[in-house]
Amino acid sequence: MKNKTETILLKGNFYKEILDEYKQKIISKLGDLSKYRIAIFYFKTKNNNYFSINQKKIFESIGLKVESIFTKTQKEFIGLIKQYSSDEKTVGINVELPLPKNFDISCLYEIPVDKDLDCLNPVNYFNFMTIGNIENTITPSVANAVILMMRHYNIEFEKKDIVILGRSLYTGLAIAHILIKFNSTVQILNEYSKDLKHKCKNADIIISATGKVNLINREFVNENSVVIDVGFEVVNGKIKGDVDIDNVKGIAKAVSIVPGGIGLLCNLSTIINLYKLITKYRT
Questions:
Q1: Which candidate, 178, 175, 181, places its Cα nearest to that of 189?
Q2: Which CATH class is domain 31-118?
Q3: pLDDT in tens, 218-238
Q4: Three-class SS state of 39
Q5: H/E element holding 82?
Q6: For the sheet containing 254-256, what is the strand order?
Q7: Closest by alpha carbon to 51, among 134, 59, 72?
């Protein structure tokens, strides 16, 4: 009888050591951080605003002031973006996605390139896609989080076959763009893709960003599979991911946990982006 695989659980708690490093770097550029602020916009659309709440916590943990701003109309949103953009004490602006249905994505263009914490401005996103070295560009936080996770656990992702489930601009597509920079072969799949389970099972790495709870089970993986769970939903007050961890444990080589995995590294990635922004635009 074949022994079960000892599945490695990939956790994001190592972010703390990197956070301290970037805190010191940011202090070396700005000095007293309590003089500066971060503006975070949220809309009460889904998932109890965990993103904006946790973003606020991480920026406050390094000493920055944070203003959480709720807006109902696109006109009000754009007006406040412009207001914070012109304030020299505001060093970063972020927006919790998804946008409300009555908002057009073009409103994100109002976020200035020099204060864009999550690569939401199309100029920053274009630079992210076209510039090879991610160390020199603002990167979507979820894409950078995936790289941080794999590097920390010494998971080889260069020149690998990688399947991504999910095709949204700032998650699935952003993750694909960052992996292509490392010469990986990337397939972006969705619910209409043929032979979905077969394609996942034959990939070196599976990255799921659909928001469909427990989508990935043992039928999607083999003993060499590395599964990165980018999914996030709140079900009955509990945070759930795309991967049924209990179902794939003992089969997959490694799987990231939710909560406590990629989400922590997304928060860290906006801190890294802040350092890049102030280094490029304020010195």
A1: 175
A2: alpha beta
A3: 999 999 999 999 998 988 888
A4: strand
A5: helix 74-85
A6: 8-10, 254-256, 226-229, 205-208, 161-165, 185-189
A7: 59
